[in-house]
Amino acid sequence: MARAARLMAGPSPFAPFDGEDEGASARRRIPFRSIIPNLITLLAICAGMTGVRLAFEGRFEIAVAMVLGAAALDGIDGRIARLLKGQSRFGAEMDSLADIVNFGIAPGLLLYAHTLKEAGSLGWIAALLYATACALRLARFNTMLDDPHQPKWHTGYFVGVPAPAGAGLAMLPMYLSFMGVDLGYYPATATLSALYIVFIGLLMVSRLPTFSGKSVGIRLRRDVVVPLILLVVLYVALLMSFLWQTLAATAVAYFISIVFSVRSYRERARREREHEHEHGY
């Protein structure tokens, strides 16, 4: 009877999870842990899109907080997937689509509603160029993941500024405005902001090496653990007490870190070349 009921029910109206074919394989059960990372990614998309709505309602501070929240969710979904052993190609593709929305489209629209609209068509063109650069950067990142000839030490660096960091940098004019810095919102100021986010877009599609999050796996000397914990607590406390000032300082610090990442990358590449020369590779 149960078999007859299943046959009468026919195929499910929903596509199988993770792109499987219809049939027995589509009806097999999957662990709930495989869905949790995808739910987090969807929450990130909702946060980014809600930020866009809030921006066009004039609630810019909450809008920026929503985009930053999307960045925080983006930072943990992959790690949770690995922790729960719930990685999937479906999740990886959805994560890339979420990044385009949250770190390309949403920041561009936030900046346009806040400042760039005063520059007219130039401001809109700048927002389009920024979003396009973000999409190109993410596409390049995905293709580089499939490169089997990439040296292992390259995983310690991104090629160009990653999309979440680019979104955080792009919103620097908004941080300054929330701090009380009088930007004026004149066409000249809006034009400078437009040129600034185009510059951020160029950093994302550039080949500048920047430090990646893989460096968190390095081993630390025991005597630096306590100072490091205190620094992290201090940073969180500053975020809670002086949010926009801390974010603006973080953006400046990231710009400075690019100089050190380029120097570190070149030094590492030089050592690798010398090692290959010594061993006759």
Automatic annotation (TrEMBL):
Alphabetized UniProt keyword annotations: Lipid biosynthesis, Lipid metabolism, Membrane, Phospholipid biosynthesis, Phospholipid metabolism, Transferase, Transmembrane, Transmembrane helix
Record-level Gene Ontology MF annotations: phosphotransferase activity, for other substituted phosphate groups
Domain CDP-alcohol phosphatidyltransferase C-terminal, chain residue ranges per copy: 225-258
Subcellular location: Membrane
Membrane topology per record: Multi-pass membrane protein
Stretches that traverse the bilayer: 35-56, 119-136, 157-178, 184-203, 224-242, 248-265
UniProt family annotation: Belongs to the CDP-alcohol phosphatidyltransferase class-I family.
Protein name per the record: CDP-diacylglycerol---serine O-phosphatidyltransferase
